[in-house]
Amino acid sequence: MKALVTGSNGFIGSTLVEKLFEQGFSVRCMIRKTSNLRWLENLDVEFYYGDMRDPESLTHAVKDIGIVFHLAGVTKARSESGYIEGNYQGTLNLLNACRKSGASEVKFIFVSSQAAGGPGSPGKPKTEFDPPQPISLYGKSKLMAEKVVLDFAGAFPVCIIRPPSVYGPRDKDVFVLFKNIYKGFAPVLGSGKQTASMVYVYDLIDGILLTAKSPSATGKTFYLSGDGDYNWLSISKQIASALNKKPVTIHVPYFMLDIVSFFSTAAAVMNKKPALLNGDKVRELKQASWLCSNRRAKDELGFDPKFSLQDGLTATAEWYKKTGWL
Ligand SMILES: NC(=O)c1ccc[n+]([C@@H]2O[C@H](COP(=O)([O-])OP(=O)(O)OC[C@H]3O[C@@H](n4cnc5c(N)ncnc54)[C@H](OP(=O)(O)O)[C@@H]3O)[C@@H](O)[C@H]2O)c1
Asked: Which of 47, 86, 108, 157 holds its CA 20 to 30 A away from the CA of 8?
């Protein structure tokens, strides 16, 4: 079967492409002229130039495709319209292209985010049955995209995946914590007791492939999270252990986030680029809990995350060292 992967050169997308290739799928990777192709270079895949904002370019992207893995999206934008254009409008454009292609058998897997469901409460992981309450523009734009994906459920089979924080080889976000701990200090926000779910990228990919194969996944949403509830102090400790370091823990007060976000946003306006830390991200970081439950994925898909957090972090640390990132 031929698969189309959007966001194919990104952290999760490129790992998915490798796995699809290993499993014998023929893979069409959607990329842009500006995309960095370093993770795809040695793979025998088809490249297709397209942009989620350009409906015309998507018409040909979906030609002869049996399954679409839609991962392209924006996690950082300069304005609300940037999130909506990158996450909602792009998804709608791709869905329309699938409908126009007339292939009623095409399956559409959308990688959304835990942010669409919103934060959980400490000790009570969020489930797919809880009403979504996103608190960030990113989360709201992903929820808008989820709704439009479900609107197309009558035209072809669809499925929505909500990963929590994803870590593993090639990731640049949790990597910031690895880098600081490697240098000898472990920054945590406030008490560091805010809880979070995490998933190792290879477990996430296994889950994505299960949704692709399982007819009962159709029309449903799944949190694909690793096992266990963690807080940022314990995550830091496990990264330190993976790196064999004994860092000094620095408790960063909440107000510092607002200050850093203010300057980061101001610099971004001048550079005309999305800020690394903006008010939207700060709202997410200040939540007491980002726990979600993988119960439904386990019961209905047979999802079985193989990596404990410590094992996944240790494998990731080894990769960062081997590739010279650390
Ligand atoms: N990483 C996480 O912890 C996490 C957690 C939950 C959900 N997610 C979701 O998972 C997906 C993949 O995330 P990631 O971490 O792999 O992100 P990533 O490494 O930043 O990759 C994003 C991908 O989207 C592509 N893209 C963005 N705008 C596009 C456009 N207009 N047209 C075509 N391609 C476009 C990028 O292409 P270029 O390289 O050309 O920019 C890149 O390939 C995203 O939808 C994200 O929201 C990620």
From this structure: 157
